[in-house]
Amino acid sequence: MTADSAPKRIAVIPGDGIGKEVIPEAVKVIRAATGRGGKKLAFTDFDWGADRFLRDGTTLPADAPEMFRRDFDAILLGAMGDPRVPSNQHAADILLGLRFKLDLYVNVRPCYLLDPRLTPLRDRTERDIHFVVFRENTEGSYVGIGGNFKKGTADEIAIQEDVNTYKGVERILRYAFEYARANKLKKLCMSDKSNALAYGHDLWQRLFKKMRLEFPDVESSHQYIDNLLMQMVRDPAQFQVIVTCNMFGDIASDVGAQIAGGLGLAPSANIHPGQVSMFEPVHGSAPNIAGKNEANPLGSVLTGAMMLEYLGMKEEAQRIDSAVRAALSEGKTTADLGGSLGTRETGDWLANFVAK
Ligand SMILES: NC(=O)c1ccc[n+]([C@@H]2O[C@H](COP(=O)([O-])OP(=O)(O)OC[C@H]3O[C@@H](n4cnc5c(N)ncnc54)[C@H](O)[C@@H]3O)[C@@H](O)[C@H]2O)c1
User: Fold this and answer.
1) Terminus-to-terminus CA distance in the chain, angstroms?
2) Is 16 annotated as catalytic?
3) If you write DSSP's letter for every residue of 184-206 in order, what string do you get?
4) β pairing state of 74-79 and 241-244
5) pTM
């Protein structure tokens, strides 16, 4: 990390599909918010993604994690995934590679309704949908341990291991509890499937029960993941902080994103406290709308605000947040949110707003 007065060094990886459209808009808005006497940022672009992979086979260079640790304060990433790479190899190498090799163990996914017109739930307001999902980001079923036997035959066996370690579960639970305490949030819900996953999720249960004793000021509860998803739709107001494993967090945060206005609006952060961290919108590369100037850039723009906040630029982050709220209330959005602007025009509008 650089000294406070030095420019913050941002690595920009737009990736594939709409990542290449929405990330430039986020950078545009971030530049506008940090201009005029704001703290300086230095952006460096990386062209990693399907085009580069198909051209020369590059995914995540071996020295990339070390380079990011040494030379950057944050990474802003778009999305990975391209129909021309059915194996998804480059996406797994780059995205999961960065999460695992930089040990970004906290995936933060806020689900805040910014405008009541955006939720598909009846009679819900901003007060009802205001929670954050903490997803364990370095373990679970996503570690890629497993294999096939007799692949492609009727006798095939496919094994996908689910890894849960004491250290990994302990640290994500602790991060969520500490976040709740620091933000004076009373309600924390841990979600697992310990009734069926008697080993891995029993570890979650034991560590949760141990940790809640350390945080008597936080009202902690437990819900199985199937119930949690149902409760998020039935009564989202009961949640403030949700903490869960890698796969369940992936799924729960998409449900959360939808009830808070849709994937196009949802930001996220992959954090290792005190170290270089990575910020990305929740959505994927959306090949169905890529290249049409239709993608909603607001998720990426709000991701940029999360990044600035992480880098200590609270006021600049707040300006971006206010601009997004204004765009929503004035209908200056893309078609998925009912507006008539394109991706670039939405970015221009926001950049003008924050620069005022
Ligand atoms: N973090 C990531 O990089 C990430 C996350 C999810 C999916 N993916 C990849 O993205 C590709 C497509 O996956 P998918 O279709 O399941 O998910 P997706 O998020 O790309 O798209 C799902 C749906 O939401 C819409 N959508 C997504 N973002 C939008 C935006 N900003 N504005 C307007 N509409 C938006 C899409 O048009 C699509 O209808 C796949 O290759 C997948 O592996 C990558």
Assistant:
1) 30
2) no
3) T--EEEEEE-TTT-TTHHHHHHH
4) unpaired
5) 0.94
Centre of ligand 1 to C-alpha 248, Å, is: 18
Q: Taking residues 321-349, what's their average pLDDT? A: 97
- Cα(342)–Cα(335) distance, integer angstroms: 8
Chain segment 299-325, per-residue pLDDT in tens? 999 999 999 999 999 999 999 999 999
Long-range contacts of 196-202 (CB under 8 A, 24+ apart): 197/162, 200/162, 200/163, 200/164, 201/164, 201/245
Active-site residue, selected from the candidate residues 45, 47, 217, 226: 226
Q: What does the alpha-carbon distance between residue 263 and residue 125 come to, in Å, rounded to a whole number? A: 18
Q: Which two tokens stand for residue 95?
A: 């995205």
Task: Kindly report the protein residue whose alpha carbon is nearest to atom 13 of ligand 1.
Answer: 284
- Over residues 60-76, the mean pLDDT reads 97
155 as an active site residue: the answer is: no
| CB-defined site of ligand 1, < 6 Å | 18, 22, 79-81, 88, 91, 95, 263-264, 280, 283-289, 295-296, 299, 336
Distance in Å, CA 263 to ligand 1 centroid: 8
* 82 given a catalytic annotation: no
> Residue 35's pLDDT is what?
86
Catalytic-residue membership of 56: no
Per-residue pLDDT, 37: 61
Helix (H, G, I), strand (E, B) or coil at 295: coil
